[in-house]
Amino acid sequence: MEVGVRTPTLVLAILLTLSARAAAQVAPQAEPTFRSPSHGRHRVFLELAGNSAFGFTVNYELGVTRTLGVRLGYGQDLYSDTKVWPFTLAALVGNGSSKFELSGGVVMVEENMSGDWDWDGTRVFATGFIGYRFQPRSGFLFRVGVIPLLWTNNQLPWVGLSLGTVF
After folding, report:
1. For residues 131 and 96, is the Cβ–Cβ distance under 8 A?
2. pTM
3. What is the β-pairing status of strands 139-148 and 98-111?
4. 3-state DSSP helix/strand/coil % of the chain, to nearest 5
5. What is the pLDDT along the chain (167 residues), one digit of tens a residue?
6. Which of 6, 128, 137, 162 could form a disulfide with 47 if both were Cys (CB 3.0 to 4.6 A apart)?
7. Where are the domains of the chain?
8. CATH classification of 6-24+39-166, choosing from 2.60.120.10, 2.40.160.20, 3.30.70.260, 3.90.1150.10?
9. What single string gives the DSSP state of each residue in 77-110?
């Protein structure tokens, strides 16, 4: 089965629905926003492996609420020179700095016609993340988890590790 634009759209819809439902069940209704306008709302991190396979992505995530974040990133697979742009919605579950993260979204991938993959050009694939996140109100951010790497020929689950900051 070829994974193209139709399959990622369906998978994205399912992941976003599940993420929204998880966030709605976990998010406290009395406190939907942050105590101060910016404290802990911005996250910048470097993801190693993950959406870029054998590479990295640089990411910015905006905390919409304490339990929901929107991410935009750019990166590159160093093996094939393939460029990736992940766009995800993250639901965070847990109290304190230690959280369970469930993310869903899409990754736009540009292959440079090298023949490394079963496809050429620019395509959009579903993506996600299931794992652990250490995220205090400010300071060091750490993530580790599993990502469905659907844009490669093998389409296997892949490990991602992120280091960054919260401000």
Report:
1. no
2. 0.76
3. unpaired
4. 15, 55, 30
5. 444 445 555 555 555 555 555 555 554 444 445 455 556 899 999 999 999 999 999 999 999 998 999 999 999 999 888 999 999 999 999 999 999 999 999 999 998 877 777 888 899 999 999 999 999 999 999 999 999 989 888 888 999 999 999 99
6. 162
7. 6-24+39-166
8. 2.40.160.20
9. ETTTTEEEEEEEEEEEESSTTEEEEEEEEEEEEE
- Checking phi first, is residue 51 left (phi over 0); if not, alpha (psi -120 to 50) or beta? alpha
Which residues, 6+ apart, have CB-to-CB distance to 98 below 8 Å?
132, 133, 134
Separation CA 154–CA 24 (nearest Å)? 34
